[in-house]
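pinging the channel bc i need a second pair of eyes. not urgent but kinda urgent?? the chain im working w is below, pasted from the shared doc
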Amino acid sequence: MLEIRNVTKNFGGIQAIGDLSIDLNEGEIVAVIGPNGAGKTTLFNLITGVYRPDSGEVRFEGRSLVGLSPNRIVERGVARTFQNLRLFTNLSVLDNVLIPQHHRLRAIWPSAVLRTRGYRRKEMAMHDLALEKLSFFGPRLMSFRLYQPVSVLSYANRRRAEIARAMATGARLLLLDEPSAGMNPKETAEITQIIRRMRDEGGYTILLVEHKMNLVGEISDRVVVLDYGRKIAEGAYQDVVNDPKVVEAYLGRRAEEGTSGGKPDGAGGEA
């Protein structure tokens, strides 16, 4: 579904991504991990058109995304969440999930002003879709919270609302940037199950950046490890966390040489 081929991105004299190649198959959940500054969010920005790669190719379902604006990439079927939340905090939860659907109305202004039957039918379909996506998160976002402004929600519930908004765009590929950030262990367990349901019941393919290794180990089909913008390991979770190059990237060479069976911090818990 997603092909990243020999992608490089430099910022001045700093190479943020170097000759990176990753494939993502339909129906997979793939996690991208790595130390802070490894290039994980830059990778998301390259896929979604925030940055243009200096070289290489990014293809979604066989079609190039390079040079397309972020909104055009969303229309192709790729949506994302952000490490730093980007919600409309003065609007309600429901309105935040309705907004990304408005491009589907395809209505001329007289029908919007007069609220014709066809226009109202499309609005109702948007409303039903928003409720469908929000229902993945149960009472955390449903019932009275639907009409609360996002500003009064907890940080964890804002995370959930942003994921629901990405789902409502009609995307088939979701890029989740630290979806469990700000969540306690119980909430992290909940979002882990939700992400699995998004794949199994919602039909989404998911690429995620995450620091909580218990979440990564539980739901990922494959794990890709970045360090200084380059891929240093890829494979099953247990193989990756025991890879000497990964241990060195997280703990440093001296820590690796001085420990036996070393793993990235949080290999059994949180990084």
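so The beta strands are 2-11, 14-24, 29-33, 55-60, 63-64, 78-80, 173-177, 205-209, 222-227, 230-235. and The two ends are 29 Å apart (CA to CA). — does that match what u expected or am i reading it wrong
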